[in-house]
Amino acid sequence: MDRSEIAAAVQEFEAAQARGEYFPRAWFDRLTLDDAYRILLARIVRRRGEGARRIGWKIGLTAQVIQQQFGLHEPVFGCLLAEGLVRSGHVFRRDALIEPGFENELCIVLDRDLPANATRADVAAAVGRVHPAFEIIETRGDLSGQLALAVTDNGQQKAFVLGAAVSQDALPELSGVRVRVRINGAEVATASGDAVLGHPYNSVVWLASKLAQFGERVSAGDYIMSGSFTRQFPLGRGDRIEAMFDGIGEVAASVV
User: Fold this and answer.
1) Going from the N-terminus, what domains does the chain have, and what CATH number goes with each?
2) In terms of DSSP bridges, do strands 240-245 and 249-255 run parallel, antiparallel, or are they unpaired?
């Protein structure tokens, strides 16, 4: 798609969303993933207001088994917006969410820019702090059947919940960090950081390279959700969710 086609598509997608249609049927099976990224980035630029300001990136489909499920050889990315940032303990209203769920992740915040050819060592040197985090997602369409449309819809992103940060010099080895996930006090999953492409920093390496293909970059101050340690879980009214990351800390949220 050329620039004029991208601009026309953005108008159509924005009009469809205003009608409550997040995966416009007229666009089923029409987009490559690269064009979907271009539409997403153009949609974010088009939006106005402080809350719509992009403050970072999210990385999804980091587990190899999920990539195989979608026939992919790499993850996907989306954008984090200022309006989506909330702190641990936040209470969400179920009525304001569309088929919500959550993933347990680390949120990496950088102190310096990264080049497109960044290595894992470059990422480690650029990290300022790391937060235990949840990503709150919404199932606004058929992600498994229409992945490109899910990308244009910002990869299910709704919000991200941050616990207290750990500075770079106090971090444990992230590939060995274990997480315990609880829903309403019951442990539902455990996993370690090597579930995220072998190491959470590998997600950032991939992101830096991928963004360069679209004229973007990973910059100082960016929040980066590295990808979930475990599978995604649904969220229901009355749920309280917690994730405890060994050596890093915990994050919690609830739904009423």
Assistant:
1) 55-255 (3.90.850.10)
2) antiparallel
